[in-house]
Write a structure and sequence with these properties.
single chain; alpha/beta
């Protein structure tokens, strides 16, 4: 007598990929809607008034330093720690090495301390070898 043993059918291990483009499109759409872009424009600064204001031709070769009324210093979205103002010299120097036509734009709150501005100006002047190219932002009166 012979015993017949039935063979098991092979299990299909393939993952169905027919709906994969739909899933990818839905994920892409979700992340496009849910993601926000970082929009940091520096510190909140109330600029002093001026009788005559000139607009800069190009913002291509400029870096901005903000000083707010709490005397916080930010250079191009990088905060300078309170007791480490000398780091600003290295930051400006690195920017100057990358772009020799660099112009430093100061946006200083009208209620900030003058001593803080003088410290920042000194660090910027020290970073420049042939004299600093500096612009002070203001609003027209």
């Amino acid at each position: 007598m012979s015993v017949k043993i039935k063979r098991k059918q092979k299990v299909n291990t393939a993952i169905p990929t027919a709906s994969m483009p739909d899933i990818i499109f839905m994920l892409l759409l979700f992340f496009m809607v849910a993601t926000t872009m970082k929009q940091f424009t520096g510190l909140k600064v109330e600029l002093p008034g001026a009788k005559r204001v000139e607009k800069m031709q190009s913002k291509r070769h400029q870096t901005t330093i903000w000083i707010d009324r709490q005397n916080n210093v930010v250079m191009d979205d990088f905060a300078v720690p309170e007791g480490e103002i000398t780091k600003l010299r290295n930051m400006v120097y690195q920017k100057l090495v990358e772009d020799p036509q660099l112009v430093v734009v100061f946006q200083v709150d009208q209620k900030s301390e003058m001593g803080r501005l003088i410290d920042v100006q000194h660090e910027v002047r020290t970073a420049f070898v042939n004299g600093a190219r500096v612009i002070y932002s203001a609003i027209p009166l």
